[in-house]
Amino acid sequence: MSSTEPRGDVITYSGVMQPVQVLAVVADRRLSGAALSALLVKDPSYRITRQEHGVGDVRAMLAAERPQVMVLDISGPAFFSLIDASDWGVRTLLLLDPDDDATVYADAVRAGVRGYLSRSVSRDTLEGAIAGLFHSGFYLDPLLMESVLLAMQAQGAGSIASTGLSLREREILVWIASGLSTKQVARECAITPKTVGNHVNNIYQKLNLRHRGQLVLYAAQQGLTTI
């Protein structure tokens, strides 16, 4: 159940570094929404332009303001009431903890959430996640990688569960398909670029693919990213 009525902030960006010009922060946890917004508005290029409380008023605000990305820290019935904002074109970045119950991840996967970020987030990480989700249509925090992929497998997302890929190979598939280079994937996974290359070759063999373009297309078909 939600702890409080949802609070929603619409935040506009007037700088040149962030591609998302209008975003929303919606939370039902005590202080969470205020803390998330405060992380961003430390930079004067961000400014809160509208604020609403309650599910109905927040939904109306989202429909009117049409943010490009919605940062969502919410659970229970309000989650399902607000998540259909994706029908209005907003991309949802959901905040979770690695030890959240598996049903929370299952609900998110079933609802079609495409962005997952740990609540232990810094401003730089939050900004990067917002931009990454906007550009690629998919963002997955390394701290949540295993829980999200297991939820996808349990929900039968596409046919990825029957490909014979290991959990590490599925993880690397997501990173590569989301646009990261071999060196960037190596840093995210704390392994060497050579090891990443070996995993990618194994993925090619198991999926009968020959190059990264085919890999990205496959991942998009499985709902793991967008082109």
Describe the largest sheet: 7 strands, mixed
**Order of helical and strand elements:** EEHEHEHEHEHEHHHHH
Low-confidence stretches: none
Radius of gyration from the alpha-carbon trace, in angstroms: 18 Å
Terminal Cα separation, in Å?
Answer: 35 Å
User: Helix/strand/pairing class, anyone?
Assistant: alpha/beta
- Strands of the widest sheet, in order across it, are 3-1-2-4-5-6-7
Mean pLDDT: 83
What is the overall silhouette?
globular
List how many beta strands DSSP finds.
7
User: Could you tell me the strand content as a percent range?
Assistant: 15-25%
| Helix content class | 40-55%
Contiguous helical run count: 10
Main attributes of the structure:
227 residues, alpha/beta, 17% strand
What does this structure look like?
The protein has helices at residues 32-41, 55-65, 77-83, 102-110, 123-136, 145-155, 167-177, 182-189, 193-207, 212-221, and strands at 7-13, 22-27, 46-53, 69-73, 91-96, 115-118, 139-140. By secondary structure, it is of the alpha/beta class. Strands 3-1-2-4-5-6-7 form a seven-stranded mixed β-sheet. Strand 5, helix 4 (102-110) and strand 6 form a beta-alpha-beta unit.
